[in-house]
Design goal:
This protein has a single domain, classed as Carbon-nitrogen hydrolase (Nitrilase/N-carbamoyl-D-aminoacid amidohydrolase, 4-Layer Sandwich). It is 24% helix and 30% strand. Helix 1 runs parallel beside helix 2 and helix 3 packs parallel to helix 4. The radius of gyration is 18 Å and the shape is globular.
């Protein structure tokens, strides 16, 4: 079978209080990833800021911006200069009092060709995102690029098989997950390790169940009470991890995704063929109580 390889890059980095410094550092790393041959580059969730949803603070809304805006302008210039596709995560201000956790896709000619608003919004200790973000209203989308069809999901979305499956059914060949996930600094080590293992396992399962590539990019370093565990990775359609970053260092992770592996894997494990779509009516219900 003919090879159809695409080199992708994931930028795993720390973040500080200074937005301009975070943005400048990211632009430099995009250029570095391009020199390594990456044609599609994905940034971590909310890369231009520290992970501010650790607490509810109305002052943090000042970090939001419109799309297009300052951050997307910088990414557009970088995409044009380097002739690459960039996936960037932005704290979107839609209007006063309405904000989203939004990922944009920028083409090599500097155009915003896709926008995805995070659909699943968490509300856990240290991850108070419901205070800041409205649920996404653009649905699960697939962005057509000259190199591949991209499914864009964000962090908490990665725990939901429905999101991965619907993206697949719309034609996604690579699922990208910009992410910000880590341990609380007082987390018992055994629980922390099980959380990391679960995070990797669920995303590998999306690759296997759908026969697609999965690329997850997480931030790294300590921010207030959270220790972000890095471990960005790329899994091929069989679920095998073909590239993985460390837990505690900034890295530019490079992976070659051979899209011909999608057909090869699906021909061997035809999960899409054998789906019982006639029996899935209950999937759109919150809960099915069969005792009634």
């Amino acid at each position: 079978m003919k090879s159809n390889k695409i080199r992708i890059g994931l930028i795993q980095a720390t973040a500080k209080d200074e937005v301009d410094k975070n943005l400048s550092k990211t632009i430099a790393k995009i250029t570095e990833a391009t020199k390594k041959g990456a044609k599609i580059i994905c940034l971590q969730e909310l890369f231009a800021t520290k992970y501010f949803p650790q607490r509810e603070d109305a002052n943090m809304f000042n970090l939001s911006e419109h799309i297009p805006g300052k951050t997307t302008s910088a990414l557009r210039k970088s995409a044009m200069r380097n002739k690459i596709t960039i996936i960037g995560s932005v704290f979107e201000k839609r209007t006063e009092g309405l904000y989203h956790n939004t990922a944009v896709v920028i083409s090599p000619d500097g155009k915003i060709i896709g926008k995805y608003r995070k659909m699943h919004i968490p509300d856990d200790p240290g991850f108070y995102e419901k205070y800041y973000f409205a649920q996404g209203d653009l649905g699960f989308q697939v962005i057509n690029t000259p190199l591949a069809k991209l499914g864009i999901l964000v962090c908490w979305d990665q725990w939901y098989p429905e999101a991965a499956r619907l993206s697949t059914l719309r034609g996604a060949q690579i699922l990208f997950y910009p992410t910000a996930i880590g341990w609380h600094n007082k987390e018992p080590s055994d629980i922390a390790e099980s959380q990391l293992d679960a995070w990797v396992t669920i995303q590998r399962s999306h690759a296997i169940a759908n026969g697609i590539f999965v690329a997850s990019v997480n931030r790294v370093g300590t921010e207030d009470e959270l220790i972000f565990w890095g471990s960005s990775f790329v899994a091929e359609p069989s679920g095998r991890i073909i590239a993985k970053a460390s837990r505690d260092k900034e890295e530019i992770l490079i992976a070659d995704c051979d899209l011909s592996r999608i057909e090869e894997q699906r021909n061997g494990w035809p999960f899409l063929r054998d789906r019982r779509i006639d029996a899935y009516q209950g999937i759109t219900l919150r809960f099915v109580d069969y005792t009634k």
